[in-house]
C-alpha cells in the first residue's frame, strides 16, 4: 500500500535515509527489542530479497551519495590522481618485502615475481577504471559490486575491503618504525615493547606506529586537496631517492650475483613470491574512491590510474634487479634489504638516504590509504549496512571525518600488536579476492542488463562465468597441491580458454561503456579472474584460516545487523519514491482543476 507524503516525510525525519540518526542504527528494526526480535524471525525472507537486490548507477550517483548531507569537493585532476597512485603504492612493499621474498622464496627471479604481480594488478586497474568512470562515487568496488552482483556479495567484499585497508595501513605503519630505527642506528625492536605474556606474533607492541597513524588521521580529516599537495611533495622526494638508489646501486653491481643462480626455488617459488608481493601493488584501488572528487572523471581517472600503475611496475622491477645485482640473494637482509646492501658494498652512509626515502614512501602510502578507506566506509554507511552516522561529510572540511577516525583507530590497534608477516599474507588474500569479484562484476555489466537480456543469454553467461571461475580454482588447486605433473593443467587451462571463447562468440553483449571501456572483453577480465585465483593458490593455509574466521564474523554481523538495516532502508526509499509519485499526481489533479 502506498504511503502518504506525510508518512514519507516521517521516514526522512527518522533518519532511515539520511546520513545520521539519533542512534547507531536508527532503522525501524532497531526501534525496540520486540521490533528487533520480529526482524530476526524474518531473516530468511529478508535475505532472499536482499541477496539478489541490485542497485542502479543512478541510485549510487544521486540518492545514495545524497545521504552524506554535504557533498565532497570536486577539486582533483589526473595529475593529483597519478601522484596519489604513486604515493599509495610505492612504500613498504618494495622496501621490506623485496628482501624477504628474494632471500626466502624466489632468489634473483623476484623481478619476475614483481612482473607477474604487476600484470595482475594492471588487469584489475583496467576493470576498476571502467567502473570508476561510469560510476564516479566514493564507494569504489563496494558500489560497483552492489550494482552488478547485489547487496550480499557487495557486503562480503566491503568487509574484506575494510580489512584490506586496516591491515595494509598497519603493516606500513610497523614498517615505518623499522626504517625509523635504521635511520637512528637502532634495531626496530628497540622501539617496541615486548609483552612476553602474548603470543610471539602479537607480542612486539609498536607505539610509534600508533603515533604515525594518528598524525596521518589529522591530515586526512582536514583537507583532501591539502592531502594531495602534501602527498605529491613527499612523492617527488621519494622518486628522487629511488633514482639515487638505482644510480648508486648500479655503481656497485655484480652481474654474477644476478645470473649465478637466477631462480633457485623454481617456478613455485616465483609464484609464491608473486602472491605475497601483490601487497606491494595494493593501494591503487584507493584512487578509484576519489572519483567523486575529480573534476572530469572520464579523462582524469584512466590517465591517473593506468599511468600510476605503469610507472609503479617499471620502478619495482628495476629496483628488484638493482638489489639482486648488489648482493647474492642468500645474503640479502629480509628486514631492511637496501640499507644493508649499501652497507655491505662499502656505502654505509647511503643507508640513511634509503631509510629517509622509505619513510617518505610509507608516509604517503598511509596518507592515501587513510583517504581511500574513509571513502569506502562512507559509502557503505550510506547504504546503512554499517551505522549511517559514519556517512556524514563535514560541511566545512568536505571530508568524511567520522569514517576517517573510526578506520584509523582500527588500523592503529592492529598496528600496535600484529607482526608484519601475518599482515602481508592475510592482506594479499583479501585483496586478490576483491579484485577477482570486480572482474566478474565487469563481465556481468557488459553481458547482462535486467529486463533486456533474455533468460537463455543469462543462463549462458552464468554458465560461462561458473566455468571460468571453476577452471581457475582447479588450476590454483593443482598448483597448490603440487602433484600430477602437467596433466591437470592440460584439462583446466583449455577449459578456461573454451569458456572465455564461448562467452565472446556465443553470448551477445548487452551494454557498451559510455566513456571509457576495458579493451579485449571478455579476455582481459577473464584473465584477471584466472591470475587472481591462481595467486591465491600460492598463499599458506594459516592465512586462509584467518580469512575464514574473518568471513564468518562478517556473516554473523550481516545476519544480525547489516541485513535488517539495509532492508529497512530499501523499504523506506521505496515508500518515499511512491509518496513522491502520489504527491505529483495530486498536484497534476489540482492544476487540471484550475
Automatic annotation (TrEMBL):
Domain of life per record: Eukaryota
Name recorded for this polypeptide: Cationic amino acid transporter C-terminal domain-containing protein
Residue intervals of the Cationic amino acid transporter C-terminal domain: 516-566
A GO term for molecular function: L-lysine transmembrane transporter activity
One cellular-component annotation, GO: plasma membrane
InterPro entries: AA/rel_permease1 (IPR002293), CAT_C (IPR029485)
Membrane topology of the entry: Multi-pass membrane protein
Keywords: Amino-acid transport, Membrane, Transmembrane, Transmembrane helix, Transport
Keyword Membrane on entry: yes
Subcellular location per the Swiss-Prot or TrEMBL entry: Membrane
Family per record: Belongs to the amino acid-polyamine-organocation (APC) superfamily. Cationic amino acid transporter (CAT) (TC 2.A.3.3) family.
Transmembrane regions listed in the UniProt entry: 76-97, 109-131, 152-173, 207-223, 230-250, 270-291, 303-329, 349-372, 401-423, 429-449, 461-480, 486-505, 517-537, 543-561
Pfam families (alphabetical): AA_permease_2 (PF13520), AA_permease_C (PF13906)
Amino acid at each position: 500500500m502506498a504511503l502518504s507524503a506525510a508518512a514519507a516525510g516521517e521516514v526522512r525525519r527518522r533518519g532511515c535515509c539520511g546520513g545520521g540518526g539519533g542512534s547507531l542504527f536508527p532503522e525501524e528494526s532497531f526501534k525496540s527489542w520486540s521490533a528487533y526480535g520480529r526482524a530476526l524471525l524474518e531473516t530468511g525472507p529478508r535475505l532472499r530479497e536482499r541477496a539478489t537486490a541490485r542497485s542502479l548507477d543512478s541510485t549510487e550517483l544521486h540518492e545514495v551519495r545524497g545521504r552524506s548531507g554535504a557533498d565532497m569537493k570536486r577539486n582533483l585532476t589526473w595529475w593529483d590522481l597519478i601522484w596519489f597512485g604513486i604515493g599509495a603504492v610505492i612504500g613498504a612493499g618494495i622496501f621490506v618485502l623485496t628482501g624477504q621474498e628474494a632471500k626466502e622464496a624466489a632468489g634473483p627471479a623476484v623481478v619476475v615475481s614483481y612482473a607477474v604481480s604487476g600484470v595482475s594488478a594492471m588487469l584489475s586497474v583496467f576493470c576498476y577504471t571502467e567502473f570508476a568512470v561510469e560510476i564516479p562515487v566514493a564507494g569504489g568496488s563496494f558500489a560497483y559490486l552492489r550494482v552488478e552482483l547485489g547487496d550480499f556479495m557487495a557486503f562480503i567484499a566491503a568487509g574484506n575491503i575494510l580489512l584490506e585497508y586496516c591491515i595494509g595501513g598497519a603493516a606500513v605503519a610497523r614498517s615505518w618504525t623499522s626504517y625509523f630505527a635504521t635511520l637512528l642506528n637502532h634495531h626496530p625492536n628497540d622501539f617496541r615493547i615486548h609483552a612476553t605474556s602474548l603470543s610471539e606474533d602479537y607480542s612486539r607492541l609498536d607505539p610509534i606506529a600508533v603515533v604515525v597513524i594518528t598524525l596521518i588521521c589529522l591530515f586526512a580529516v582536514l583537507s583532501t586537496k591539502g592531502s594531495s599537495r602534501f602527498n605529491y611533495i613527499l612523492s617527488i622526494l621519494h622518486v628522487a631517492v629511488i633514482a639515487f638508489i638505482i644510480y648508486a646501486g648500479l655503481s656497485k653491481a655484480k652481474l654474477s650475483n644476478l645470473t649465478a643462480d637466477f631462480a633457485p626455488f623454481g617456478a613455485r617459488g616465483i609464484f609464491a613470491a608473486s602472491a605475497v608481493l601483490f601487497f606491494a601493488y595494493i593501494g591503487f584501488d584507493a584512487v578509484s574512491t576519489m572519483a567523486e572528487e575529480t573534476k572530469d572523471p572520464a579523462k582524469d581517472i584512466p590517465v591517473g590510474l593506468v599511468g600510476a600503475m605503469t610507472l609503479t611496475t617499471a620502478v619495482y622491477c628495476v629496483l628488484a634487479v638493482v638489489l639482486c645485482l648488489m648482493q647474492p640473494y642468500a645474503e640479502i637482509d629480509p628486514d631492511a634489504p637496501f640499507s644493508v646492501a649499501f652497507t655491505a658494498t662499502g656505502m654505509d652512509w647511503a643507508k640513511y638516504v634509503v631509510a629517509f626515502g622509505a619513510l617518505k614512501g610509507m608516509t604517503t602510502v598511509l596518507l592515501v590509504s587513510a583517504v581511500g578507506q574513509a571513502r569506502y566506509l562512507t559509502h557503505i554507511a550510506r547504504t546503512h549496512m554499517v551505522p549511517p552516522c559514519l556517512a556524514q561529510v563535514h560541511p566545512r572540511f568536505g571530508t568524511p571525518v567520522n569514517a576517517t577516525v573510526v578506520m584509523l583507530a582500527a588500523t592503529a590497534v592492529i598496528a600496535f600488536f600484529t607482526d608484519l608477516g601475518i599482515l602481508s599474507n592475510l592482506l594479499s588474500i583479501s585483496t586478490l579476492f576483491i579484485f577477482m569479484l570486480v572482474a566478474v562484476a565487469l563481465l556481468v555489466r557488459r553481458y547482462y542488463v535486467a529486463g533486456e537480456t533474455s533468460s537463455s543469454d543469462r543462463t549462458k553467461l552464468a554458465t560461462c562465468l561458473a566455468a571460468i571461475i571453476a577452471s581457475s580454482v582447479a588450476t590454483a588447486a593443482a598448483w597448490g597441491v603440487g602433484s600430477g605433473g602437467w596433466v591437470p593443467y592440460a584439462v583446466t587451462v583449455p577449459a578456461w580458454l573454451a569458456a572465455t571463447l564461448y562467452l565472446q562468440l556465443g553470448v551477445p553483449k548487452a551494454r557498451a561503456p559510455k566513456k571509457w571501456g576495458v579493451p579485449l572483453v571478455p579476455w582481459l577480465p577473464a584473465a584477471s579472474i584466472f591470475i587472481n585465483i591462481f595467486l591465491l593458490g600460492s598463499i599458506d593455509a594459516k592465512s586462509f584460516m584467518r580469512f575464514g574466521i574473518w568471513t564468518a564474523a562478517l556473516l554473523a554481523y550481516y545476519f544480525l545487523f547489516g541485513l535488517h538495516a539495509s532492508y529497512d532502508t530499501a523499504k523506506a526509499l521505496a515508500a518515499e519514491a511512491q509518496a513522491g509519485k502520489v504527491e505529483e499526481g495530486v498536484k497534476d489533479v489540482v492544476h487540471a482543476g484550475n
